TrEMBL record:
Protein name (record): ABC transporter permease
Protein's organism: Devosia albogilva
Keywords: Cell membrane, Membrane, Transmembrane, Transmembrane helix, Transport
Domain of life: Bacteria
CDD domains attached to this UniProt entry: TM_PBP2 (cd06261)
A matching Pfam family: BPD_transp_1_N
SUPFAM superfamilies: MetI-like
Positions of transmembrane segments: 24-48, 123-144, 156-179, 217-241, 281-301, 321-340
Main location: membrane
Amino acid sequence: MALEQNLTQPPDYGAQRRRVGRGVVTLGSFALTLFLTFLGLLAITFFIGRVIPIDPVLSVVGDRATQAQYDAAKIAMGLDRPLWQQFISYVGSVFTGDLGQSVSTGRPVIEDLSRFFPATFEMATLGILIGVALGVPLGVTAAARQGSWLDQTIRVVGLLGYSVPAFWLGLVGLAVFYARLRWVGGPGRLDIFYDGLVEPVTGMILVDSLIRGEIDIFWNAVSHIILPASVLGFFSLAYIARMTRSFMLEQLSQEFVTTARVKGLSERVVIWRHAFKPIRVPLITVVGLSYAGLLEGSVMIETVFSWPGIGNYLTTALLNADMNAVLGATLVVGAVFIAINKISDVLYRVLDPRAR
């Protein structure tokens, strides 16, 4: 009888419409938040570019230009208009993909960024993979053996990751592993006789060399990237291991862990299946923040290793007072930071139903 009633009961279209409506509202709210955040980033980069003591007109015409040439260039660049008009024009240009012309390279900034950003992305991605692969097990091990010599050693390693300057560690790595032991390649992405042999597809030399079937170039690229990526991975490892240890200590003191041990489960099962499972969600945020930090904070590493990434590009632009390049690079780094945070939020909601 109950089955017949269920079969004859009409579907609840009102509930379906409400679910669809909530989904549309959620998606719209997410898109609006993303748009407003990006607009705020545009405002910050624009007004910082206007208040720093660098004259973008002078960087274009040079310090030997006449006043007439200076005024003509200022009008051509639109810097004679009120600040709010300049900002509206700047926002319109950004949303159409126009970030201006680079004084340093003579190319459009968007073209430069498409060439330099993949190198940073490749190195930072490998660095975060190293940091996660080593940092999470070390943090779990330190928490499981709290107070032991192993815990103290891991905590010291984490402290070194917070206190050692990146440029110093990079120079020491080059001196030891490249100059002395010859275990890795030197500065740059490839040896000079391999440079330009692989036609770029993604801009990431490891991926492009595999796509083209150039195995020798792939292994040469690995020998060059492994040291700077390991240095970046060491700094992310320190942060991830420290946070993992903190999360695990909190979980290991919970009653459900004690219950699992009383039931006779092995320590491995208790730690990885019961205690580690609840910390996966906060770890996503930690890894996301660490990854974004590697992408935006690799300036010193790229300078030390002569890595042709966005950090090196930004440094060169600052030294040359190339404001279009500086603002464009800053905008891209900020946009990537926003994107990674939003992806972390989405994964947070997927793994934790309580956050939906």
